[in-house]
Design brief:
- It is a single chain.
- By secondary structure, this protein is an alpha+beta fold.
- Among the domains are: 265 residues, no CATH class; 176 residues, no CATH class; 76 residues, no CATH class.
- 40% of the residues lie in helices and 10% in strands.
- It contains 26 helices and 16 strands.
- Helix 14 packs antiparallel against helix 15.
Length: 779
């Protein structure tokens, strides 16, 4: 698509509508949100958010290999290998090398950092921010002298800003992705997959056979068919989340990252390919997130309109890409910062903005998405609608038209009282800042946001079911826990259940990561999302068998069956239908078994139950939920905070680590020889096809049993590389302890596992064998 097609708003109906909305808005918070959107609509690479050098480089990208002296290259290699160490370590190594090789002139630490920035073009955009983290002084706040929220002065007595905030622009990072031929070729994954998908759909009557990536979803394929996504464009996801740096004190900071969907799924979520966008310092949470998001989206919008020129080494030509914003991702509380909707307790509390309206108890302000109407007498204003159909696709479909109609109503609120009433009815708090993105280079609000399977199935559902089964869930005054026939995990039963869960640890291989600890002892003190996942959906069907009463156990198994499918990286069309049916049965059964249409149990029906109904449709819309889950964000927060070296100023240090991460990632894309080569572990043997033998190993060859010798000889005779086959009585072998599989998992043999006691063991010798027997009349 030519650049001219993205410039101007004269023919843009959304821009005209937003202008009308701004003119009709009277409330200050609505006008501020709309002002951010208006400013995004006028974003340009020349509007001052970039330095002239960076703006020029985006328009005139460097091409060809980087010309470095041997000393500069060595300086870069040392710098990269020591990026998590103190500055003095680099200086010490530099001095030692120059002492041994006096002719060498390695760069100083500051000069090598500057060289990295010059090669990559990755420089931060620096703004002032409130010292209490309320706002960043961007957009309509740019010229303010004090925080509009807390009135804290912007500058100290010497005229210096009290706090700074850095945004890492995405443009130079995307330019770096295609500077190397092999890297640029790998980035063609999206284009090649799209081509294959369209051909497959053409042969199958437009019916997909499976879902394995975001590009398999109907939303992306429709955009391709409409010409909104071109071959040279780059598809992006933005993810936002809060992080608590210290357990013992308030330390709430926020991290934002970009994920490039053009990379294959096997690499796009790994550390070298995830690109931090910004870090909001704490210890207090931000109050107006739009002011922090603004710079990232301002830069993205400018690239969407004007195009990003980059050197594609695989084609040996400069191409123009228009970054396409595919998804905004966050957990439940974080997503409200992106989509501008109410929280999960609102009347329209669905994060996907479907048509389900919540119900509440009399004289209560919290709403719950119960589809079944409570038994009479129940007459609560706005909540007495009849039963809703669990399988009505129109009811659960996100609607852009409904969102915009409701947004017009909210914006035209006459006063604060009218605003609160409209907010309740519409489920919208403010216009989403993502309305300011280039309309032809993003999906419209609210369908540009996805669901988060990580928090949903690993935290939210266990946080509902386990307290119900333990009898510790909130109980209304008119209800009695003694009537809860599902509350069976109490007293000694809960203690024994916890021991059973912990006893399963030796039978979970190390590749399963952290095993679930004893929930009776640890569930209230830092139980991890991965532990809940293994506990509920891995061990659950076994450890809850004959404990939960049959109807509740069957209902739970429907949940497990559906969630196991939905969490897969590849889901066949048949599996998706089965998962949809299972999750519908679970949601419907949950309301009938637990809620039972009782007004005093409406609070049982949380949004986590409602979201189960959406999951299958979300797969068809944007691919498997695991593609856009918060696992990537959580891991990024973890490995960034692991690099902190200055506890006295953790926020500034974390922001610098994020910037350095982006620069190093870009540098390795531009100069691949700086990447550390993949080496096998010491004394390992590569068997080919992804199989690797790992130590420990027998010191001498050992004789085998007759049956083992027969099996080995029979196998060797089928291999053409062996010319002389020993008899089975002559066979001896050297045993190896471990085998790394093509999946990355490591299998161990009984020989080594026998040397460990059960409490120190994680068995990895279990295999799954599929036997296909052919029966004839003689058998």
């Amino acid at each position: 698509m030519d650049i001219d097609e993205h410039q101007g708003t004269d023919n843009n109906p959304l821009a005209s509508e937003l202008e009308d909305l701004f003119n009709s808005a009277t409330l200050a918070n609505i006008r501020v949100a709309l002002k951010f959107i208006q400013l995004l609509k006028t974003a340009s690479l020349n509007d001052g958010h970039l330095t002239p050098d960076v703006a020029t480089r985006l328009k005139e990208p460097p091409s060809g290999p980087v010309d470095l002296t041997p000393d500069e290259l060595l300086s870069l290699e040392i710098f990269i290998s020591m990026q998590t160490t103190a500055q003095r370590v680099y200086t010490s190594v530099k001095v030692a090398i120059e002492r041994r090789y006096p002719e060498s002139e390695l760069l100083s630490y500051d000069k090598v950092k500057q060289l990295v920035a010059d090669i990559t073009g990755v420089f931060p955009i620096t703004d002032h921010m409130c010292v209490k983290s309320c706002v960043a002084y961007t957009g309509p706040f740019h010229d303010l002298e004090a925080c509009p929220v807390c009135n804290e002065p912007r500058y100290d007595s010497s005229g210096c800003p009290k706090q700074l905030f850095n945004t890492i622009p995405i443009g130079p990072l995307l330019q770096a992705l295609k500077r190397d031929k092999d890297k640029a070729t790998a980035l063609r994954y999206r284009a090649l997959r799209t081509e294959a998908l369209l051909a497959e759909l053409d042969c199958n009557g437009n019916l997909p056979t499976s879902y394995g990536d975001f590009f398999d979803g109907s939303q992306y394929l429709d955009a391709v068919n409409e010409g909104l996504v071109k071959e040279d464009d780059i598809v992006l996801m933005l993810s936002l989340d809060g992080a608590q740096l210290f357990m013992s004190k308030q330390s709430d900071c926020w991290v934002c990252i970009w994920v490039v969907f053009d990379h294959p799924p096997g690499v796009r979520y790994k550390k070298p390919f995830v690109l931090p966008a910004f870090v909001i310092p704490g210890p207090s949470p931000p109050r107006i997130m739009d002011s922090f998001l603004y710079r990232s989206l301002q830069h993205l919008t400018a690239l969407q309109k004007e195009g990003l020129r980059l050197w594609d080494a695989s084609k040996n030509v400069i191409v123009t890409a228009h970054p396409f914003f595919a998804l905004g991702a966050a957990d439940g509380p974080g997503l409200t910062h992106l989509n501008g909707l109410v929280g999960h307790m609102g009347k329209n509390g669905c994060r996907l903005y479907c048509g389900v309206r919540g119900r509440r108890k009399p004289r209560d302000s919290h709403y719950y998405p119960a589809l079944l109407k409570p038994l009479a007498p129940y007459d609560v204003d706005g909540c007495s609608h009849p039963d809703l159909d669990f399988e009505d696709p129109d009811l659960f479909m996100p609607s852009v038209e409904r969102y915009r109609e409701h947004l017009r109503l909210l914006v035209r609120s006459r006063n604060e009282t009218n605003y609160k009433a409209n907010r309740l009815e519409t489920g919208i708090v403010k216009p989403s800042i993502f309305l300011g993105l280039e309309e032809k280079k993003c999906f419209p609000v609210p369908v540009c946001f996805g669901s988060d399977i990580m928090h949903h199935c690993s935290l939210n559902i266990p946080d509902l079911l386990i307290p119900l089964w333990r009898g510790t869930f909130d109980c209304s005054a008119t209800d009695k826990r003694s009537n809860w026939d599902w509350a069976v995990l109490t007293g000694e039963m809960w203690t024994e259940h916890g021991k059973t869960v912990a006893a399963a640890t030796p039978y979970l291989p190390g590749s399963f990561d952290r095993p679930p600890r004893d929930p009776a002892l640890k569930i209230s003190s830092g139980y991890k999302a991965w532990e809940f996942l293994m506990y509920m959906y891995g061990l659950g069907p076994g450890v809850f068998y004959n404990i939960l009463p049959p109807p509740y156990y069957e209902n739970f198994c429907n949940l497990v069956y559906g969630m196991r499918i939905i969490n897969q990286h590849h889901i066949s069309a048949m599996q998706l239908l089965q998962a949809e049916e299972a999750l519908f049965r679970f949601a419907r059964g949950f309301e009938k078994l637990y809620y039972q249409r009782r007004v005093d149990r409406i609070h049982f029906v949380r949004q986590s139950i409602h979201q189960c109904i959406h999951l299958a449709f979300e797969v068809t819309r944007v691919g498997p939920p695991i593609i856009s889950s918060q696992w990537t964000m959580e891991r990024t927060i973890g490995n960034l905070t692991q690099e902190l070296r200055q506890p006295s100023n953790p926020y500034a240090n974390l922001a610098q680590r994020a910037l350095l991460r982006c620069q190093i990632n870009a540098l390795k894309n531009i100069i691949p020889q700086l990447e550390e080569p993949v080496r096998l572990p010491r004394n390992a043997i590569d068997l080919g096809d992804g199989y690797v033998l790992l130590r420990r190993r027998d010191t001498t060859a050992r004789a085998v049993l007759p049956d083992e010798g027969l099996a080995l000889v029979s196998y060797l005779r089928k291999l053409p590389i062996f010319t002389e086959i020993p008899s089975q009585s002559e066979v001896s072998v050297v045993r190896w302890a471990r085998l790394r599989l093509p999946t990355g998992q490591i299998a161990r043999c009984l020989w080594t596992e026998q040397s460990k006691t059960l409490d120190r063991l994680r068995m990895a010798r279990n295999v799954k064998v599929n036997c296909h027997f052919l029966f004839s009349s003689n058998h």
